[in-house]
Structure formats: C-alpha cells, structure tokens
C-alpha cells in the first residue's frame, strides 16, 4: 500500500509539473529577439509620363522584434507585435534607366500587428505550437532617394501607409515555468504605392505589393 501511494504521489507531481509548462488563462507573456522582414514583392513599372519598363526590388532587413500577449483562455491569446523600425533598400528591378546605380533609395517602416493565436496546449510536452491570424497597419516614413538619384532630378519620394491581414505559425519551447524560446514565421499583407517627381514631371509606381515573410527568433518570459 505504501508503494502504491508513493507511486500515485510521484505521478501527481509529474503531471502537475507538466501542466505548469502549458500556458493558462490569465497568463501574460513577453518576447524579445531578432525579426527579419523578407519582402516577396511584386510591383508595377515606374511611370514618368510613360511606362519606363522597370519595376522595383526591395531588400531584407533585420531588427529587434518585440511582442506581448495575454491568454484569455488556456488555448487563445491576443498578441501585439512591435519592432524597432525596419529600413529597406529599394532597387531598380532589372536595369537602371538613369545610370545612377542599381540602388534607387531607402524606405523605413513600422509594422504593428494584432494577432489572435490558437495554442494546441499539450501539457505533456515542452513544445507549445500555435497558429494565428490578425491585422497589420504599416507606417512608412523617411522615404528618400540616394544622393546620385537626387542629383539626377528624382525628388519627393512618398509611399502610402498600408492596412492588411496577417497570418503566422510558431512554437514556444518551455525551458521552465517562466522562461521559454520562440520561433515563428509570419506573412503580412502590405500593399502601397509611390509618388515622386523627375525634373519636375510627376512620377509614380501605382502598385507595390511587398507581402513579406517575417522570421523571428526570440526568448520569452511568462508572468
């Protein structure tokens, strides 16, 4: 009887320890790490009076990614994503029509995103995978041409802000009851358009679908 009681006590302690690893209603979590925005861009051609036959390409950038989430059930949380500003090089897509170099300019953006996540919440595993969907508002600012393009007559670069959907998959790996590692992949719908002038003539790129994948590795803490 004594051995049976000891076995049951051991199982109860083990089960309680495993359950504590899974997130629970009322938990707050914060994460911080590196986030890489990798655009999968598709743009219309540059137009200045007529179609120049050249589109745009946008480079990757990596910054500090931050998010905070609150579990309103054991399996569902609301997450707010933030980051330090991402700065991307904007290049001529195929060839340089002005002879000023392949780099056209730079743009900076902030992509705050609100996501509803569903956790599979397996209490027997330190791996806590989840999927999510949400909305994003991207603030685009500090748009500028390179000095060579500015000298060639390109002025007043401006890109519109963007509102769109987002989706993600991720996993938290629990190191203990408070600390965990996180990896996630997120898709964000970012659509914009650009306006500028070339030697006083109005120019535009009427469709810029950036639609990046966002890859994040971070460390998190549960309150």
UniProtKB/TrEMBL annotation:
Transmembrane regions: none
The keyword Signal is annotated on this UniProt entry: yes
UniProt KW keywords: Signal
SUPFAM superfamilies associated with the record: OMPA-like (SSF56925)
GO biological process terms, semicolon-separated: transmembrane transport
GO CC annotation terms, alphabetical: outer membrane
A Pfam family recorded for this sequence: OmpW
Signal sequence coordinates: 1-22
This protein's name: Outer membrane protein OmpW
Lineage of source species: Bacteria, Pseudomonadati, Pseudomonadota, Gammaproteobacteria, Cellvibrionales
């Amino acid at each position: 009887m004594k051995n049976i009681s000891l076995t049951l006590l051991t199982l109860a302690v083990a089960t309680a320890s495993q359950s504590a690893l899974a997130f629970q209603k009322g938990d707050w979590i914060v994460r911080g790490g590196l986030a890489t925005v990798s655009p999968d861009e598709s743009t219309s051609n540059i137009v200045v009076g007529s179609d120049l036959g050249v589109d745009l390409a946008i480079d990757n950038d990596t910054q500090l990614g931050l998010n905070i989430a609150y579990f309103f059930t054991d399996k569902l949380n609301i997450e707010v994503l933030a980051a330090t500003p991402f700065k991307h090089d904007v290049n001529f897509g195929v060839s340089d029509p002005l002879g000023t170099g392949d780099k056209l300019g730079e743009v900076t953006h902030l992509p705050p995103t609100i996501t509803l996540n569903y956790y599979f919440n397996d209490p027997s595993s330190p791996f806590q995978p989840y999927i999510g969907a949400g909305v994003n508002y991207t603030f685009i600012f500090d748009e500028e041409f390179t000095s060579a393009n500015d000298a060639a007559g390109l002025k007043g670069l401006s890109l519109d802000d963007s509102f769109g959907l987002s989706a993600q998959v991720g996993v938290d790996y629990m190191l203990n009851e408070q600390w965990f590692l996180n990896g996630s992949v997120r898709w964000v719908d970012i659509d914009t358009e650009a306006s500028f002038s070339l030697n006083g003539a109005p120019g535009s790129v009427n469709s810029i679908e950036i639609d990046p994948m966002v890859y994040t590795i971070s460390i998190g803490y549960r309150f």
